[in-house]
Fold this protein.
Amino acid sequence: MEMCLRMLLRRSLWRQFDLKPVVLRAFLTSHCSTCKSVSGSNHFIKRPLSLQHPHSGRMDGQVRTFLQRSSTNSFFYCERVTDASQTALSSVIPVFAVMKFDKDGNVTSFERKKTELYQELCLQARDLRFQHLTSITTRNNRIIIRMEFLKAVIMTDCLFILDFRNVNLDQWLFKELAPQLAGDGQLVTYSLPFEFRAIEAILQHRISTLQARLNEVHPQILETLESLVDPKLLSVDRSKLHVLLQNSKNLSELETDIKVFKESLLKILDEEELIDELCLTKWTDPQVFEESSLGIDHAEEMELLLENYYRQAEDLANLARELKVLIDDSESVIFINLDRWVRWQFGRAG
């Protein structure tokens, strides 16, 4: 019996179906139809089947039939489960829509899975999570930037924009960025290495976006305040109060975004090593490194670039703060006019 079982295992299963012993153990743990019990052994090869169960003679044919009928189906089921798990796992891997800009202004677009993209860029998975709405970091001579909707990776000779399908980026991406990088725009860093142009273009776009938001709410707030604080008016338009409240909320959000932008720049400006890490070409081109050591210091140029946009952000913050103070100072006048209007209404009713 034991010899027959060994030959059955080796010839019928191992050779035909390439089975593993750990699965065979599961096959031999069978249900006995005579005493309704379960038989099995921790080591079924060395232990005779006659010692495993008192009805081993009856089970000989049952085990053989069970193995022959179930082996293929069981392994087919396991293989399908494994394939389904792998398919489900691959379906949740993020896919980035990527635009690549080179130093000559040439543009290509493609899609990459996150796992493939960070390997191509020599980054780590966490570098492409972009957990913070505004951040500037470096890794492996790459610059990783996020400015709200904008996600970018800068190298010495190209710029990658990730998840570029956003209406807030269309005008800039498709019409302005490529000429800027090629030297046709108004970038002051054109004579410097490519990463300077890429950083300046991104910072310029961010400042322009913040400026546009301020330009949108500024006239609306002034117009609304003028109508609400006018003492000649005998009534208060509640719809204008609602407009003022909404604009005040938008202004507070703008102040927060400007503050975060300033802090991201200030974090780099406070650390000389971080400024140096942004000068990618300095560490890859020996000639540039030698020029930097002789007096043309790229770190100083980078610091001047960041300071320039920090000052612009500071100017925006001051304008937003002044507008906020104007709203706060007008609240008392608005409440006085509103109280007078309520009293006038009660007087009419009396």
